[in-house]
Amino acid sequence: MTEPTTPDPLETALRLVRAQASVVKRFDAGLSGLHGVSLSDFTMLLRLSEAPGGRMRRVDLAEALGLTASGVTRGLAPLERIGLVTREPAPRDARVAYAALTATGRERLTEMLTTARQVAGEVFAQWPADDLTTLTTLLAPLNR
Fold first, then answer.
1. Which of 91, 83, 96 is nearest to 57 (CA)?
2. CA 101 to CA 85: how far, in whole Å?
3. pLDDT beneath 50, residues of the chain
4. Who's near 20: CB < 8 A, 6+ residues apart?
């Protein structure tokens, strides 16, 4: 009888990376086609919408998204140009800047959420609910 082999952690990680790239591609196609934003843009807007008052210090947004401060600044610039996000100075410290969701940003995000939910539904359409629950549980420790 053959003993079960231990999965190769590298192979597992590479499969996860390929799966992530495939999912990102599908989200990017859906969100850019209908809303002119990428998954990265959507994620920034979603994180801002979840923050108290719809705003966060840029450095906190960077940390929450796993990006550098300069990466967040580059990512927010086009969202600011199209009026979805605004830059707000901190009232007590001019060195601190907040990224804040605008009213237009909130409206557009509502529309984007519908699209994102549709894409996610398509990605996992063939998955039984128990498998989705298991996947969510297994991925949780990686999201720290």
1. 96
2. 5
3. none
4. none
